[in-house]
Amino acid sequence: MARLLLISMLFLWAGSILMVQGGDPTLFFEWNVTYGTIAPLGVPVKGILINGQFPGPNINSTTNNNIVIHVFNNLDEPFLVTWNGIQHRKNSWQDGVLGTNCPIPPGKNYTYKFQVKDQIGSYIYYPVTAMHKAVGGFGGLRVNSRLLIPVPYADPADDYTLLVGDFFNKGHTSLKKILDSGRNLGRCDGVHLNGKVAKGDGKDEPLFTMEAGKTYKYRICNTGIKTSLNVRFQGHTMKLVEMEGSHTMQNDYDSLDVHVGQCFSVLVTSNQEPRDYYVVASTRFTRREVTATGIIGYKNGKGAASSELPPPPVGWAWSLNQFRTFRWNLTSNAARPNPQGSYKYGSINITRTIRLANTAQRVDGKLRYALNGVSYVEPTTPLKLAEYYGVAEKVFKYDTIPDEPPSDNTKVTLAPIVLNMTHRNFVEIIFENHETAIQSYHLSGYSFFAVGMDVGKWSPEKRMNYNLLDAVSRQTIQVFPNSWSAILLTFDNCGMWNLRSEIWDRHYLGQQLYASVISPNRSLKDEYNLPEGVLTCGIVQGMPRPPPFSS
């Protein structure tokens, strides 16, 4: 029996090769990134495909799986993809953002190697280069629970991924030119559901099929570039069970606001008359509401979906109140037998408070977005490589922004932004939005506790209303107009980590920064060495590799 465990076994599973070698299984993928014509809204657009697919293939993994993805860039421009929500413990080398990785040059390839560890949940991947995300290169990434670790609900009849997002018919090249010229993108042209929109002519193929009397899991993610969306199922309620890697208290909802970059998992029971129904996605907080639909069909159902769609909510106060209903399921198992609520974050002393205020301002006549008065610019050498090779001072300076917003009349400057974070410090970050547009932020490498959110200006007294018991641990948080949001986390994952606006025109024009977390021990116990085969660029290209950590 012992010898059998050492024998490698190969399986073809979900478009990948699964290899088991007596340890954690490894999934192998080969992705060819190409251009191709897509038409989510009926207008042909030059899109970005992965293995000919838009959206890209779904990555179906299980906790502790090792993921190996060979990416071949067949575009005529650099390309790079990030794994939104995967924490890459000790391994920011695989995060796939421009502050840690060189983009893959045209005609070249790169191999990502990372482990999904214990992050049971729903995530996405997408490109971070230019405006590629606007036309594809994105897809779902799920991390399933191992059989030995139960989840707090019965196994669904099936598990579906629903990617919703706004769409611009101009194409990524034109969108980039608009931003480079200093202008705003304006409103989207429409909304898609898994790259499609139902026409309502009776000829639409179902996005998904359900059998009467059964319960199905839907992983709903907003892969758009700037628009919050409200998602609802005609005639059916949704039971929220998971959010970005955390099991939640199982409340029922008629509709859910899903902000850019966020993922929710819901259970939908097919308890209605067997026929077609619409799943509906509508833009939120826009002057002109845009609605798109997709078909959910019942097996052996008869009858078209009703043209009477469930109405969307009105106003952002409704969305704020919905956020307050989200609670962490403290008694549920995580990826280990201990309950999620065993980590008592509310009793830890805060060692640093960082208040980040977003602003929009013109610099030399062109629109830029900034955090605390500085608009991020991408250096030609990735920050992490510069730091690792010992040439950081030639690329960036640490702590170029203060921990508090400057006065309102401060002129915006352009520079890389890197916060020097002390390893294992427990930090409070306040996102302050004094603008009239909603914000959405993501922090790579971590999960944080979304403890507070309210209208008006933040002050220390607001901590009295923080949720210090069962705030959901997640990676993405919205900030409503003229409001603030607060998160708490321990910076215990060494590496260079991107805190970015998920509103992609803001990201492109400077609303992002990096947090550098360095272990004083310089040890493999805290951070992995530079991988073999990593792409180098900028001033480190051709330099000898620094000596690796030995222990």
From TrEMBL:
GO terms for molecular function: copper ion binding; oxidoreductase activity. Keywords: Glycoprotein, Signal. It comes from the Eukaryota. Residues 1-22 form the signal peptide. Residues 32-146, 158-300, 381-521 form the Plastocyanin-like domain. InterPro entries: Cu-oxidase-like_N (IPR011707), Cu-oxidase_2nd (IPR001117), Cu-oxidase_C (IPR011706), Cu-oxidase_fam (IPR045087), Cupredoxin (IPR008972), CuRO_1_AAO-like (IPR034273). It holds the Pfam family Cu-oxidase_2. Belongs to the multicopper oxidase family. PANTHER family: L-ASCORBATE OXIDASE HOMOLOG, MULTI-COPPER OXIDASE. This is L-ascorbate oxidase. It comes from Gossypium mustelinum (Cotton). The lineage of its organism: Eukaryota, Viridiplantae, Streptophyta, Embryophyta, Tracheophyta.
